[in-house]
Every structure is written in structure tokens, then in C-alpha cells.
Amino acid sequence: YIEAVETAEEAEKLVKKHPYQYNIVLLDKNLPGLDGVSFGVKLKEFAPQVKAFGITGDIDSVDAEYALSHG
Predict the structure, then answer these.
(1) What is the value of pTM for the model shown?
(2) Which residues are CB-neighbours of 37 under 8 A, at least 6 positions away?
């Protein structure tokens, strides 16, 4: 089952509503509103069983270090 949304806030609502329906979440760093890196960290707090993968064409070493240090 695949679902696409445009913002981290939309993704958060879906995962919170059905936390065991999702296995992975693909995130872009440049999401409107809450960025993908921050949402990945937040996702671990309310749905630790869901794996977050960041994909982007625009990331610098500071963002990469932050994301890696937060799982």
C-alpha cells in the first residue's frame, strides 16, 4: 500500500491515525512547512516502528550529520 502526501503535517496525521499501516516513510529535506529531517526525528517519537528515509537533491553536511545523529 502506497500513499503520497505533500507535507510532513499530512504524513503525521496519516501515520498517527494508522500507525501500523505504514512501514517506511520517504522524506524530502525541502518539504513545505516542517522539513523532512525534522519530521524524521519527530516520527521516531510517535511511531518508532516506522523507518524514515531521506531523499533529496539539496542537502549539506550539517543536515546530513544532524539526520544521522538522530537515527
Answers:
(1) 0.75
(2) 27, 29, 54, 63, 66, 67
